[in-house]
Amino acid sequence: MNESSGPVCAVLDLGSNSFHLLIGRLAGGRLVTLDRRKDMVRLAQGLEGDGQLSEPVMTRALDSLAVFSQQLRNIPRANVRVVGTNTLRAAHNADVFLERAEKIIGVPIDVISGQEEGRLIFLGVAKGHASNAIRRLVIDIGGGSTEFIVGRRKAKRVESLFIGCVSMSERFFPERRFTREGYQRALTLARAEIQHLADGYGTARWDEAVGTSGTIRYVEAVIDRLTPCDHLITREGIERVVDHLKRSKKPDALQSLGLSPERVPVFPGGLAILHAAFIELGIERMHVSDYALKEGVLYELADQGEHEDTRRQTMDYLTKQFNIDRRQAARVERLAKSLLPQVAPQLTVERAFAQQVLVAAARLHELGLAVSHSGYHKHGAYVLENADMPGFSRREQMMLSFLVLNQRRKLRAPEVSSYSFSADWALVLALRLATLFNRMRIDQRMPSMRLAPARKGWSIELPAGWLRKHPLVEEDLRAENEFLAAIGSGLQVKTRR
Questions:
Q1: Terminal Cα distance for the chain, rounded
Q2: Which domains does the chain carry?
Q3: What are the tens digits of pLDDT across the range 37-59?
């Protein structure tokens, strides 16, 4: 193996239309694909009127994952990432499916936000092009959502709309049949959804339009079948496909385009979305990229430096936006990190995950002060749960919100239980003590402290002399014992000579 080659990594993309597996490594900064697999699961098809994933579709998806898991078996868990997109964001019973799915594949599933999905799609596309100096508009039409991204080397503007090839096709083209009326209705709806993007995503904002993922690649293939298009999608080419379908008198008009059987049912909805984007955003021609979400995820997985850079940029942005005291954040971070090994035996989450979220929580724990001092922990928790945070998974945001909410005063258990999130009170304790001992907001030498599980909760041992000099801290520690009692725990303070 070339010395510049990185470890083998795998990405499994649980999309609304298809599940995609990509196995590869970086060699000299380039992606080397070792294996790939696709299964047309059509997860979005299982979303019923009440927002629940149907049992038959869940079973179909789990059977697919059982096959994928065989290919993941010999790849280290740390080198595997599984991401879920729009349907798993939308399904009210997603946790039921995710819990069963994780037992099959043995890897946590990150259900990423539309913003994060767009960022990773753009990263994949950018890495697949020789030049990153030009401004690009990237469009990705998935099964349940469509992402619009503008950027140069990295995504600068991301919008995720709840229109996709599966949802649109099922709504306007039932029974796999193309009709003029159905297409016009689909086009009108898609235009209405995209119309408000014109200011931020119009031609003045980019130099090149790029399309990616299955729908757009199939549109290109169909255009090329009718008239060779030199790997370009043009507005004229799209209109030629639409006109061909409208003129066809056959009930199986879609099959006449040379589409694969699994693509036929979802093609017209995706075509309408792309057509609407060309009209509303003033696109005349579009290049097609073979790279998308899974490639972006794999690049970031294989190059942790890039991922950490994204996370750092996000934290720096929030720190500046909410005017967080960096020196105080650094004090809390130092102490929290030093306490982590002592609480590690009682963690309910993976150690690496715990380290990441504890550091982020320490840096951002005073975010809510920009709103109000009264209840600032609550304000901060709300922002962290709901903000767009590039580089952070949904699971990380939930834990961040939970830690910041519980940094002080009354302890609050999560309102909603989730397979991917559990209340880690040991991690909470590390952050609470770090903020408690830094209450004076000054640089000072911290005492040697020993934190350990006790028969009833925790014990903390401190030098007797130090406590006598810091009576306020001693009083705060007594109060902590009362707060912890609410969750059936406690904090016993011990001194040593």
A1: 58
A2: 9-111 (3.30.420.40), 115-296 (3.30.420.150), 303-446 (1.10.3210.10), 447-497 (3.30.70.2260)
A3: 999 998 988 888 889 999 999 99
